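Supplementary Methods. Inverse-folding protocol.

Structures were first reduced to a C-alpha coordinate string of length 113. This string, shown here, constituted the complete conditioning input.
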Protein backbone atom coordinates (compact mmCIF):
# COMPACT_ATOMS: atom_id res chain seq x y z
CA UNK A 1 0.00 0.00 0.00
CA UNK A 2 1.28 3.45 -0.78
CA UNK A 3 -0.12 6.69 0.51
CA UNK A 4 0.48 9.40 -2.04
CA UNK A 5 -1.00 12.25 -0.04
CA UNK A 6 -0.23 12.11 3.65
CA UNK A 7 -2.39 14.18 5.94
CA UNK A 8 -1.12 14.78 9.43
CA UNK A 9 -3.28 14.94 12.51
CA UNK A 10 -0.91 16.96 14.67
CA UNK A 11 2.24 16.80 16.71
CA UNK A 12 3.63 13.76 18.49
CA UNK A 13 2.51 13.50 22.12
CA UNK A 14 3.91 11.53 25.05
CA UNK A 15 1.14 8.99 24.43
CA UNK A 16 2.24 8.68 20.79
CA UNK A 17 5.85 8.29 21.89
CA UNK A 18 4.89 5.48 24.25
CA UNK A 19 2.99 3.75 21.44
CA UNK A 20 5.84 4.24 18.95
CA UNK A 21 8.29 2.77 21.44
CA UNK A 22 6.00 -0.20 22.14
CA UNK A 23 5.57 -0.87 18.42
CA UNK A 24 9.33 -0.65 17.82
CA UNK A 25 10.05 -3.06 20.66
CA UNK A 26 7.78 -5.67 19.02
CA UNK A 27 10.57 -6.29 16.50
CA UNK A 28 12.43 -8.52 18.94
CA UNK A 29 11.41 -10.42 22.04
CA UNK A 30 15.00 -11.19 22.94
CA UNK A 31 16.77 -7.85 22.55
CA UNK A 32 16.15 -4.26 23.51
CA UNK A 33 15.43 -2.36 20.32
CA UNK A 34 14.87 1.22 21.54
CA UNK A 35 17.67 2.67 23.66
CA UNK A 36 16.60 6.28 24.00
CA UNK A 37 13.63 8.46 23.08
CA UNK A 38 13.02 12.18 23.01
CA UNK A 39 10.26 14.51 21.92
CA UNK A 40 11.37 17.45 19.82
CA UNK A 41 9.69 20.36 18.08
CA UNK A 42 9.02 18.38 14.91
CA UNK A 43 8.13 15.02 16.45
CA UNK A 44 10.19 12.35 18.17
CA UNK A 45 13.66 10.90 17.91
CA UNK A 46 14.40 7.29 18.76
CA UNK A 47 17.85 5.77 19.13
CA UNK A 48 17.44 2.16 18.05
CA UNK A 49 19.48 -0.97 17.53
CA UNK A 50 20.76 -0.59 13.96
CA UNK A 51 20.32 -4.29 13.22
CA UNK A 52 16.54 -3.83 13.39
CA UNK A 53 16.28 -0.41 11.71
CA UNK A 54 14.38 -1.40 8.55
CA UNK A 55 11.85 -3.53 10.43
CA UNK A 56 11.37 -0.82 13.08
CA UNK A 57 10.77 1.73 10.33
CA UNK A 58 8.24 -0.53 8.58
CA UNK A 59 6.35 -1.25 11.81
CA UNK A 60 6.20 2.38 12.93
CA UNK A 61 4.94 3.43 9.50
CA UNK A 62 2.40 0.59 9.45
CA UNK A 63 1.13 1.81 12.83
CA UNK A 64 0.22 5.11 11.16
CA UNK A 65 3.20 7.32 11.84
CA UNK A 66 5.33 9.24 9.35
CA UNK A 67 8.93 8.22 10.03
CA UNK A 68 12.34 8.02 8.41
CA UNK A 69 15.78 6.74 9.24
CA UNK A 70 18.35 9.52 9.52
CA UNK A 71 21.25 7.26 10.44
CA UNK A 72 21.95 3.62 11.21
CA UNK A 73 20.70 4.03 14.78
CA UNK A 74 18.32 6.99 14.61
CA UNK A 75 14.67 7.07 13.63
CA UNK A 76 12.78 10.35 13.42
CA UNK A 77 9.01 10.29 13.63
CA UNK A 78 7.59 13.55 12.34
CA UNK A 79 3.82 13.18 12.45
CA UNK A 80 0.81 11.08 13.09
CA UNK A 81 -0.95 10.08 9.89
CA UNK A 82 -4.58 11.09 9.89
CA UNK A 83 -6.60 7.92 10.53
CA UNK A 84 -9.15 8.80 7.86
CA UNK A 85 -6.42 9.27 5.24
CA UNK A 86 -4.90 5.93 6.25
CA UNK A 87 -8.26 4.15 5.99
CA UNK A 88 -8.94 5.71 2.59
CA UNK A 89 -5.56 4.47 1.34
CA UNK A 90 -6.32 0.99 2.68
CA UNK A 91 -9.74 1.01 0.98
CA UNK A 92 -8.15 2.04 -2.33
CA UNK A 93 -5.60 -0.77 -1.98
CA UNK A 94 -8.28 -3.34 -1.16
CA UNK A 95 -10.48 -2.15 -4.04
CA UNK A 96 -7.59 -2.56 -6.49
CA UNK A 97 -6.89 -6.06 -5.13
CA UNK A 98 -10.58 -7.01 -5.40
CA UNK A 99 -10.76 -5.73 -8.98
CA UNK A 100 -7.64 -7.71 -9.92
CA UNK A 101 -8.99 -10.92 -8.37
CA UNK A 102 -12.37 -10.45 -10.06
CA UNK A 103 -10.66 -9.98 -13.44
CA UNK A 104 -8.56 -13.10 -12.84
CA UNK A 105 -11.69 -15.07 -11.97
CA UNK A 106 -13.46 -13.95 -15.15
CA UNK A 107 -10.37 -14.84 -17.22
CA UNK A 108 -10.21 -18.29 -15.57
CA UNK A 109 -13.92 -18.93 -16.18
CA UNK A 110 -13.63 -17.92 -19.85
CA UNK A 111 -10.57 -20.14 -20.25
CA UNK A 112 -12.41 -23.18 -18.87
CA UNK A 113 -14.97 -23.17 -21.71
Amino acid sequence: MSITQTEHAGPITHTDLDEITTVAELVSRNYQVVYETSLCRTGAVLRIDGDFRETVLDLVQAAGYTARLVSRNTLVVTAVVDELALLEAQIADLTARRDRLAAERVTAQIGSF
